[in-house]
Amino acid sequence: MTAVVRAEGLSKYYGRRRGLEDLTLDIQPGEVFGYLGPNGAGKTTTIRLLMDLIRPTGGRVRVLGAPPGEAAIRARIGYLPGDLVLEGRERARDYLAFLGRMRGGVPPGRVAELAERLDADLSVPMRKLSKGNRQKIGLIQAFMHEPEFLILDEPTSGLDPLVQQEFLAMVREVRASGRTVLMSSHVLAEVEHVSDRVGIVRSGRLVAVENVAALREKAVRRVELHFDGPVPREAFEGLPGVRDLRVEGAGVRCTIDGRPDALIKAAARFTVVHLVSAEPDLEEIFLTYYSEEGAHHDHQVPA
């Protein structure tokens, strides 16, 4: 199957400042790809290159098998920019109706259905929309024509938690229908429950691409074990992946990187009466990539 996105050595510099450097990435049909990184890392630059809003300094990119500037390709994409601007005196309902006509028609009731799901008020003039309602209108226009490929830049910005959950349900429905989503965010928890893979970008460089299951396997777990009597510290020292070990009488506390197999086998030599394991902290593995990968890179064009 043809990749929905295929970038090869894609780079963009703004003068001497690096926006994106040497991005090589494939996004496959039917997957939700989470694109993670702090503000200024290169996520929006990548998306603008995919939308042909800016031109690359180097490399090449294909979207839905063609150069991204082709009009026929743009019609197959739903796009929510991170800096959405909605102005004018017309009501949100009229604006969405206009966009629907421009896109060749939207099924009757589709806009109303999405507005109800997102609790969006379509009667408000565009210039009077709150940040949250503006974001809802942006999501409606991205989803309403059921595009093949959704590109969403910080899509939950300004949304309350209940609406965020409804949005994530909409993303799952897109994936279930075989369509594709690229979703950028600086919040890992926002994408971990819907993404098949995540790419982590730092200072304009892609430092990792992982599937979510692999990230969970690498993630940090905090474990607390209680036994029916005191246990020797040496029974738990030096175990693979075990660090921050504390042994106090009948209690053992530690942090595990990756699989807990070695700790479980060591604990099985004694009688365990209680076990607490915190949910894997994906945020910590995410931050580990930032501290260990590319920390020496600067933002300048190489000499």
From TrEMBL:
GO terms for biological process: response to antibiotic. Coiled coil: none annotated. Pfam families: ABC_tran. It is a peripheral membrane protein. InterPro entries: AAA+_ATPase, ABC_transporter-like_ATP-bd, ABC_transporter-like_CS, ABC_transporter_ATP-binding, P-loop_NTPase. One of its GO terms (molecular function) is ATP hydrolysis activity. Residues 5-228 form the ABC transporter domain. One of its GO terms (cellular component) is plasma membrane. Its main location: membrane. Keywords: Antibiotic resistance, ATP-binding, Nucleotide-binding, Transport. It is found in: Cell membrane. PROSITE patterns: ABC_TRANSPORTER_1, ABC_TRANSPORTER_2. Belongs to the ABC transporter superfamily. This is ABC transporter ATP-binding protein. It comes from Nonomuraea montanisoli. The lineage of its organism: Bacteria, Bacillati, Actinomycetota, Actinomycetes, Streptosporangiales.
